[in-house]
Amino acid sequence: MSNYLVIVECAIEHEGKYLMIRRPEGVQAGGLLAFPGGKVDYADGEKCSDILINAVKREVYEEVGLNLLDPIRFATSSYFIYSSDQHALDVIFYTKLEKTKVEVTPSAREVPEYFWLTLEQIHSHKKTPEWVERQIAIIEREKRPAGSLLYN
């Protein structure tokens, strides 16, 4: 039986730009742009509430210091083989900051660099991987409220 490593990421939009981080060298997708996020921990389910939302809020806070107060929507998910040959399920969420205090404090260990980028800048950045391009396209198409699952 195979188990999945579950990863959550959050596309965070503010004033027409997305918060992107550069992944540290020596880790999965090192040096490339990504949304803030990380692995789901067992502790994320301790409150018997939404494990994935708890995980994404915790990971965003740990990586960039944002305490997300705005609604968080499921955007998409995908599968890949993690660097340890483990099967990974990557769950992408989306939020638009309106209530959240926008003061980014990156983790020195996990986020060597961060950027607020427009769609055009993301598409033209040499460190944007093709999977982020696909995820952004889905988010832009699906971020309309109608038909979207919305979480707080």
Structure description:
With 152 residues, the protein is an alpha+beta fold. The chain has one domain (5-151): Nucleoside Triphosphate Pyrophosphohydrolase, CATH 3.90.79.10. It is 22% helix and 32% strand. The chain contains three helices and eight strands, in the order E-E-E-E-H-E-E-E-H-H-E. Strands 1, 2, 3, 4, 5, 6, 7 and 8 form an eight-stranded mixed sheet that branches. A hairpin with a 2-residue loop joins strand 1 and strand 2. The chain is globular, with a radius of gyration of 15 Å. 26% of the residues are buried. The mean pLDDT is 89.
Q: Judging from the principal axes of the Cα atoms, what is the shape?
A: globular
Chain-averaged pLDDT: 89
Which CATH first-tier class would you pick?
Answer: Alpha Beta
Find the CATH topology.
Nucleoside Triphosphate Pyrophosphohydrolase
Please tell me how large the radius of gyration is. Answer: 15 Å
What CATH architecture label applies?
Answer: Alpha-Beta Complex
Q: Helix coverage percent of residues? A: 10-25%
In N-to-C order, the SSE pattern is EEEEHEEEHHE
- Structural class of the helix and strand makeup? alpha+beta
Question: CATH homologous superfamily - what is it?
Answer: Nucleoside Triphosphate Pyrophosphohydrolase
Instruction: Indicate the low-confidence ranges by residue numbers.
Output: none
The largest β sheet comes out as: 8 strands, mixed
Number of domains: 1
| Portion in strands | 25-35%
Distance between the termini: 34 Å
* Quaternary class: single chain
